[in-house]
User: Fold this.
Amino acid sequence: MKNNYNIYEAPARINLIGEHIDYNGGMVMPAAISLRTRAKFKLRDDLKIILDSENTDLHVERDLNDLGYDKKYDWANYPVGVIYTLIQKGYKIDKGFEIIFDSNIPLGSGLSSSASILVLTCYALNSEFNLGINNKDIALISQEIEVKYCGLSCGIMDEAIIALGKKNHAILLDCAKFDYQYIPIDFKNYTIAVLQTNKKRALTESNYNQRVQECNKALNILKPKYNINNLCELKSTELDNIKALINDDVIYRRVKHVICENERVYAFKDALINNDLVKLGKLLNESHESLKNDYETSGIHLDTIVKASQEFKDCLGARMTGAGFGGCAIALVKKSSFDEFKKIVEAKYYEKTGINALIYLVDISDGPKKVI
Ligand code: ADP
Ligand code: MG
Assistant:
């Protein structure tokens, strides 16, 4: 049988370090990974948009002339948001199509399946309708959709790394300027493991948006004194003064995390260049500690899996990755000890939480591509 679908793929991502930094205009270091969303795409002769996903049961049909957001369309708002926004921006999409998604990324687990489906849809439409958009602009448009159409006040990190990912490289990304450089990743005889807690995230969006608001509140207090546009322009040497100015323990701890985490990203880059694996592990641990105690985006499940990892003899460090409140963590583990690590950490996690975690290795991969 003739297969008349074109097939496209976009990766998931991990963030090595720099968590909850992107919307504070600082530095982050994400990498694309070998989990992916796939889209089968076929043009139609009418104006119908037919959307399916192997990951959900909800089949959605829309019309090219009527693509506004509607809660009832649930997941399909992500790809529909892309079509809607591209048309709003004046790109010519004048034919309907069928698109079938299928993802091996755990949805809602902090590996950014949402940015993956957005970037993938934008990349596929760019290719199918010859829109001439480069990957950097695909990232910007996709992020704008997640914020304006889907309603999550996220920064540029997820869409940027998914659109711009490169095999065996992370990017050091300046989220305020959207400048980036590729950083080769070579952990020698160590590797990055993904630790999936399988804890359903609860109230993630409202907690996430709350953190964004807390940071904005801090920025408004600190702006007149420091003449800054972003919290990440501040230095940790100023923390005592900042504490006095803010005069609110919760807001101060949020700022402390942001400033120190941003500095950890630079330290992580230096440690990568110097092949200082022990330092990399230490920075991962410090990042988790800060997210747990100061930014409060971790939780019992992430803390349990991270602690079990940190206790393992051949693990140099571990931390939550992504927005938090459940989801995934990462750990830097000796390659030859991975099987033992997986067995021990999964057992300890089950004993404490009664949930089966999933621990696996991923490769650091390229951004979106047309498969056939
Ligand atoms: P994360 O980005 O960490 O995976 P989000 O809550 O931001 O978590 O995004 C998950 C949502 O994205 C899903 O609930 C679903 O609405 C949508 N989504 C992502 N990938 C797919 C897919 N392959 N099929 C259907 N929906 C998807
Ligand atoms: Mg997401």
